[in-house]
Design goal:
Elements: H1 3-10, H2 14-29, H3 36-43, H4 47-50, H5 57-78, H6 87-104, H7 106-112, H8 127-141, H9 147-150, H10 154-170, H11 178-197, H12 205-214
Helix pairs in contact: 1-2, 2-3, 2-5, 2-7, 5-6, 5-7, 5-8, 6-7, 6-8, 6-10, 6-11, 10-11, 11-12
Amino acid sequence: MTDRARETYHHGDLRNALVQAGLDLTRRGGPEALVLRDLTRTAGVSPSAAYRHFPDRNGLVTAVAARIQDAMAQRMTAAARTPTPSGRERLRAVGLGYIRFAIHEPGWFQTAFTSIDAAPSDTPIPAPLSALVGALDALVAEGCLSPSDRAGAEWPCWSAVHGFALLALHGPLRRLGESERDAAAQRTVDAIIDGVLGEAEPRHPSRRSAQRTDGTASR
């Protein structure tokens, strides 16, 4: 049993102990590592004890994924560099925070979205999507984005950063160095924000810098 799982279990909270053990396993090995027999062994309990709290493996995966999603959203919203970021800064931080979490925590990232049911039953949308929705709504409140343009804008935004994350983990972006990959991530996020806001020209130095780096600067 891991130290955190053992401490939680000794306080009488077996459910949280099992979730913590699941977090430890998936952080190292992704959702495939979440084998009930291994998890109960890690938590120091019998397999039958787990079924008192989770009806099946999918129930446990859902609980672990929801905890990861919460941690992911916290990092996304904490990525803003100023205490009171503008809507654009907030949206940029959310996008880059999503990508960076995926790259730094690949096992958790894969687990977070391994199931369409991977969301707590009392929450209408996953926590990372909620953070994105909040950033977009802030742009509307500031008058930077019209309500009509706001409608459904979360889907292209989420698709862009999720797709980048997958390419960075499993596709050709794996071959880039860390600084080059981060510049590409910033360019991607800036491009989608420019698109959402209807801006033809890039407003962020990072995007112009990335253009010069890859030799695709417009002439």
